[in-house]
Design a protein that fits this description.
The structure holds two protein chains of two kinds. By secondary structure, chain A is α+β, with helices and mostly antiparallel strands. Chain A contains nine helices and eight strands. Among the domains of chain A are: 75 residues, no CATH class; 51 residues, SH3 type barrels; 82 residues, Alpha-Beta Plaits (2-Layer Sandwich), CATH 3.30.70. In chain A, the strands form two sheets. In chain A, strands 4-3-2-1-5 form a five-stranded antiparallel sheet. The longest helix of chain A is centred in the N-terminal third of the chain and has 29 residues. The mean pLDDT of chain A is 80. In chain B, a hairpin with a 6-residue loop joins strand 9 and strand 10. Chain B has one domain. Classes of the chains: A alpha+beta, B mainly beta. Chains A and B meet through loops of A and strand 11 and strand 12 of B. Chain A: It is a multi-pass membrane protein. Chain A: It holds the Pfam family MS_channel_2nd. Chain A: This is Small-conductance mechanosensitive channel.
Chain lengths: 298, 247
């Protein structure tokens, strides 16, 4: 088979660039992409049990894109581009490209700062703007969130970086609060004792920072007891929902009830006091009013 | 209860009932503790079950590898001093399934008879969640119920020139090595650097002649327990715990 045509210089380049060198460039790039992917897979498997998913993914991404960048720039000569010239032209091209792709560059830079500053990590539960859920991946251009109801939301990194981020699992522990309403006729001290005993038996209600149970308000129809408990951040929701029902049950088992909203109306039974509009007008006065016209006419 | 069992077998102690029965072509593992029942199907013959104490950090759920032991009374250690004390720690019982030669271990079940409670060591923003246990300080080895409490022989070393006031100690489960016979035993150390910082760790080597003169049993007679954490493929995890928020 005659392969001489591969040595023919391409009309758009000078004599050093041939069809063969372009094919070689494409082959090297494809092979290095394939190699980088295999290396990523191998690294992912190796690092799985050794480092956190977040750190592992960052290492893999840096190696993957770093390898491709090095291969790309070191083989530019094959397609007639001098890397040093490329860098020189990069200044002008950068400005042109920058204007043309402001959003992409903005997202890229934001992605870089997100990886450096690390306000969120893969696996964290976060709220970004009005999207809440788990961070699945932090990519160069965008961040992927799986919402609690299972939707996949892609948020551009620029938006992630410039908006408020609430990292729900940013700290190891988290506090929650319940308000328990009991009747005025019930013993609040007994209720507090029962609730404290229940908290003591709950493993994930932390000893330190200590929980607090106290009468917070004398409401319209109830005495309001506030319960504040610290829990490990991953167990926070489970204990919050479980303990509320447990408190209700333990109080009811001990005769302490949660009252319905109620108002007490007092009717004063004082017969001597009669509303003003019901006070009988003296007869003379009525008469004088009735005769007013006659008197005026007279 | 601790030891190696060949199915079928049944063992019962202090409210814990563990059995493996043959039902035709498969084995059924059953465990009862209070109102809690666990039932698992085992496919495979020539297997044995090993019941031994494990790191007390798996029940009710493994959420932290750190164990904080709070002292009943605060202990004061003079500057430059080195003292040995004994503490107790909570016991968790691990049930493993293995080949006849006690190889290819797989955790089947973990249970505990003692109170479960967690606490935070350090600050809310960057502290660590720990399993909590309260212990008295003993000058000689106590004799607790081996299904509920184990013994830690803790060597305290105060490298600073100041008095050290100690009310708690935190250990990492990655370095724990448990030994058992009539009791359950661990040997640990705490090196105090200054008023707020210390480092804790465990002795990994088999205990030997050094302690023969001590009132404790000969350690060679104790068997090394299989741990849950030692089954995991551990990467670069610290075996020591650095106590940076005081003790």
């Amino acid at each position: 088979m005659d392969l001489d045509f591969l040595d023919n210089s391409l009309p758009i380049f000078d004599g050093t660039v041939t069809l063969g060198s372009v094919l070689k460039f494409i082959l090297i790039l494809s092979f290095s992409t394939f190699l980088a992917k295999i290396l990523s897979l191998y690294l992912r498997r190796c690092l799985k049990d050794r480092v956190s998913k977040d750190a592992g993914e960052t290492i893999i991404k840096i190696l993957y894109y770093g390898m491709l960048t090095i291969v790309f720039f070191s083989n530019l000569r094959l397609i007639g581009i001098n890397p040093s010239g490329f860098l020189l032209a990069g200044g002008v091209a950068g400005i042109v490209l920058g204007f043309a792709s402001q959003n992409i560059v903005g997202n890229l830079v934001s992605g870089f700062f997100l990886m450096v500053e690390r306000p969120i990590k893969i696996g964290d539960q976060v709220q970004i703007s009005d999207v809440s859920g788990y961070v699945i991946d932090i990519r160069i251009i965008s961040t992927l969130i799986r919402t609690y109801d299972g939707l996949l939301v892609r948020i551009p990194n620029q938006q992630v970086f410039t908006t408020n981020i609430t990292n729900i699992v940013g700290h190891p522990v988290r506090r929650f609060e319940h308000t328990i309403r009991i009747r005025y006729s019930d013993d609040a001290n007994a209720a507090i004792f029962l609730i404290k005993d229940l908290i003591e038996k709950e493993p994930f209600a932390l000893l330190n920072p200590s929980p607090s149970v106290f009468v917070n308000e004398l409401g319209d129809s109830s005495v309001n007891i506030t319960v504040r408990i610290w829990a490990p951040v991953n167990e926070w929701f489970g204990i919050k929902t479980r303990i509320l029902w447990d408190i209700k049950q333990i109080l009811e088992e001990n005769g302490i009830e949660i009252p319905l909203p109620q108002s007490v109306v007092h009717i004063q039974a004082d017969s001597k006091k009669v509303p003003e509009e019901l006070v009988a007008v003296p007869e003379k006065e009525i008469e004088s009013v009735l005769n007013y016209e006659e008197r005026v006419l007279a | 209860m601790y030891g190696r069992y060949n199915p079928p077998f049944s063992v019962e102690q202090e409210g814990i009932a563990i059995s493996v029965e043959n039902t035709g072509e498969q084995w059924i593992y059953r465990r009862t503790l209070g109102t809690e029942d666990v039932e698992k199907i085992i496919l495979g013959d020539e297997k044995c079950l090993i019941i031994n104490p494990v790191e007390p950090l798996n029940t009710p759920k493994e959420i932290t590898p750190n164990l904080l032991i709070e002292f009943e009374k605060t202990l004061l250690l003079a500057g430059g001093a080195k003292k040995k004390i004994f503490l107790t720690f909570p016991i968790e019982i691990g049930v493993f399934i293995a080949d006849k030669g006690e190889k290819n271990l797989q955790l089947l079940d973990v249970l505990s008879l003692v109170r479960q409670k967690f606490t935070l060591y350090g600050e809310v923003s960057n502290g660590v969640v720990c399993k909590h246990w309260k212990s008295q300080i003993y000058s000689i080895s106590p004799s607790p119920n081996p299904l509920q409490e184990g013994i830690i022989e803790l060597t305290l070393r105060n490298s600073s020139s100041d008095w050290a006031s100690i009310s708690k100690v935190v250990f990492s489960a990655y370095g724990m090595k448990l030994y058992y016979a009539g009791d359950v035993f661990m040997r640990a150390r705490m090196d105090i650097f200054n008023r707020n910082t210390a480092e804790t760790g465990f002795e990994l080597q088999r205990l030997s002649g050094e302690l023969k003169s001590s009132p404790l049993k000969d350690f060679k007679s104790r068997k090394e327990a299989f741990g849950v954490y030692s089954l995991q493929k551990l990467g670069f995890v610290p075996l020591k715990f650095y106590m940076g928020w005081g003790f």
